[in-house]
Amino acid sequence: MWDDIAFDLERISEIETLSILFYPVNSKILNGDAKQKCFYGNNQNLELYEDEAFIARLKKCADEVEGPAIYCEQEYIFFSAVRLDNIGYLFIGPTCADEFRYVLKKEFYQNHQLSSEQEIQISHMRCSRFLMLLVLIYHLVSGKKILVQDILKNNQLDLVESEMIEKDMVVQQKEAYEEEKTHHTYQTERKWQEAIREGNEEDAASMISQLTISAGTLSSKILNHTRYLVVCGVTLGCRTAIESGISPTEAYAVSDAYINKVDQCTSEEALYSLMKNCSVRYAQMVAKEKSKKVYSTYVEQCKWYMNEKYQTKITLEDMAEYIGVNEAYLSHLFSEKEGMTIREYLNQVRVERAQNLLKYSNSSLVEVSDYVGFSSQRYFGRIFKKRVGMTPQQYRSKNQTKEFVKENL
Asked: What are phi and psi of 76, to 5 degrees?
């Protein structure tokens, strides 16, 4: 008779992709062939029933409940345990009332001390369908009839039946709006990219957790899933950085460096940390590039001001007020970018103008000095010689065009 029951259980297991284990009452943890003959479903799921503490919890549930006992984990994952008089136990599951996404899977693996390399198969079915299967399986193995309402009542779940129905409705709605969920994932991705574009290190780092939670499953193996996710993130971050003004050479160098580190990471935590660090790095690069542009704008305005007004008396206070920045900040910024002080740059502009006048006019040295804005001829002569390597007169004698030389004669 048990052979006929076993045949039917195996068919149910195949149709519903549901794991079912018969556990003889006088047996300890089944090993080898004995366990294999009593198990129906994905062989990888046998790993779940290696845990003696877990088996003990299932047996305890079955001993305390008449008919199928329901054992729930993480709100959406269900097992059932049935005590068969004088025969043993029947363990059914796991099933998941929601899609078995990455975060749910990660917690489940941790709870059962499973490695990310193991391939546990969890059947996806709604609560109502799981309960109906329990009705069928229980009648098959015990010959007794039971209703869904009886299972709920025996498990003290009759008061939350409406909640279970509501849970099924929520799952159904989630499935119906899968496209909308994809839209939300896209929005999260856009916000993360925007954080990088703005050079916002804090947001770029904090949004990594949102990205990983909302991402689809890239591999059934958790560690591989995370590796693929990090590679995608680093690549997308690289493209975003380039769009934000970072040179492709610089951005690709960072991308290559982080992608090459992916295979060296042996845990999810290390991979998430790598992706977070990469996000921060891209945001820092963009922030630095933006600051360069701001600095460059201030410095260029400063240079324009001096080139336009070199003939007049120019003070640092006047320029800072014109540009709208602090005097000390402008002075430091200019020196850092140009490698010379504002005063040195202004003298350079004035000397260059003076050189043209000395070459192409017959203006006296006093007139040239006054025209280009030097406060005295003596100061003009000292600065000119320092920059050009000769006095204004020597420069004129060497470089003045012939027509002006003739006029002087």
From this structure: -115, -10
